[in-house]
Recover the amino acids of this structure.
């Protein structure tokens, strides 16, 4: 099944018949160049590789994504010689000279100075995922290494998880499932009433590509949409989803029934939502976080949930991840937590890999880089 999905979303194959909106858009933006073209240019430009050899990519440990991993490896292997961390460590001297790119699977593993020092020919770190807060961009850049990310592949699945969390929290889905399977409490009680998403006010904090996709979905639920962003969106974009700009975050917090966090984690957004901000929200409001855990002051959130300052929270991200077993957030019945699954779909993993491959090849071939991330 995962194989099929990867083929379906593969830009080149998608162009030969299978048509899916996402893959077609993706194909227009990111056509990975054919292996032979890539090989020629790279061979011409560097002495690191032998004639006809593919550039080497080091793939950091990517944990357990089961069958999908093979698909991901197959995608990478079309354009690169794949070197696992185990292989690298077993033959460091030879491998370290070969490696020109590192593929990072989302935010799990990070890149330290020691690794960079051991890779003299490294040119690019292709991060699979949009958030790069786990990477020390200044340090990486001081080695002359570029960093790229995958903003396009993540937007739809992450917006979907935002909607899923909003609906699940509003309608108390997790509690409902528990009630349905528990022999003692298999009937409905007034205590278990949820709140409605349809027609409610949604405040989106961070209206980048994911935030905008959330707004598109929320429109179908007839929601009133407010947003707060560093830069105001164009008038046509606002009108297309019926979103109203709040220059002050305070106004959004005071009016929203659901507040969804979709910002990048930066020094400016670290603990953006703390005691004061939670206190501005309606007692009937729900906080949804699909960005990074550290955007919220988690201790203040625990307190607000315990004291019913806000109705509930639905979090795909926390700090740390996962939370320790005895963390107070795990003992509250007005919280639902998912283990950072914004892009955990067969399709997203393959599309992120494709986007990362296109970025890495662009760097290695000296072409314009579709999604480079710069240190601030
Ligand atoms: O793309 C990312 O950085 C994500 O965390 C998606 O959930």
């Amino acid at each position: 099944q995962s194989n099929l999905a990867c083929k379906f979303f593969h830009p080149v194959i998608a162009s030969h018949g299978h048509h899916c909106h996402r893959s077609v858009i993706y194909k227009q933006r990111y056509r990975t160049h054919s292996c032979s073209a890539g090989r020629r240019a790279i061979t011409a430009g560097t002495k690191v590789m032998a004639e006809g050899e593919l550039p080497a990519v080091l793939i950091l440990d990517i944990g357990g994504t089961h069958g999908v991993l093979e698909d991901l490896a197959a995608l990478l292997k079309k354009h690169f010689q794949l070197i696992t961390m185990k292989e690298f460590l077993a033959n460091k001297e030879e491998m370290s000279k070969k490696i020109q790119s590192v593929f990072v699977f989302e935010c799990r593993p990070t890149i330290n100075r020691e690794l960079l020092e051991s890779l003299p020919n490294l040119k690019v770190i292709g991060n699979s995922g949009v958030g790069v807060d786990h990477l020390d961009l200044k340090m990486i850049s001081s080695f002359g290494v570029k960093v790229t990310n995958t903003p396009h592949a993540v937007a739809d699945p992450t917006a979907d998880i935002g909607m899923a969390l909003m609906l699940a929290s509003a309608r108390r889905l997790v509690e409902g499932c528990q009630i349905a399977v528990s022999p003692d409490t298999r009937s409905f009680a007034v205590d278990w009433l949820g709140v409605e998403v349809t027609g409610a006010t949604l405040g989106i904090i961070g209206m980048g590509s994911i935030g905008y996709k959330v707004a598109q979905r929320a429109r179908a639920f007839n929601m009133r949409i407010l947003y707060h962003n560093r830069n105001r969106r164009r008038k046509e974009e606002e009108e297309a989803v019926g979103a109203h700009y709040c220059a002050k975050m305070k106004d959004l917090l005071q009016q929203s029934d659901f507040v969804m966090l979709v910002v990048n984690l930066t020094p400016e957004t670290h603990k953006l939502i703390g005691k004061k901000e939670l206190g501005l929200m309606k007692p009937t409001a729900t906080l949804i976080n699909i960005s990074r855990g550290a955007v919220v002051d988690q201790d203040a959130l625990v307190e607000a949930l315990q004291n019913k300052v806000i109705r509930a929270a639905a979090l795909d991200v926390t700090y740390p991840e996962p939370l320790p077993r005895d963390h107070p957030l795990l003992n509250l019945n007005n919280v639902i937590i998912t283990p950072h699954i914004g892009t955990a779909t067969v399709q997203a993993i393959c599309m992120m890999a494709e986007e990362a491959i296109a970025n890495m090849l662009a760097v290695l071939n000296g072409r314009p880089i579709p999604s480079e991330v710069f240190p601030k």
About this structure: The two ends are 41 Å apart (CA to CA). The chain is about 40% helix and 15% strand.
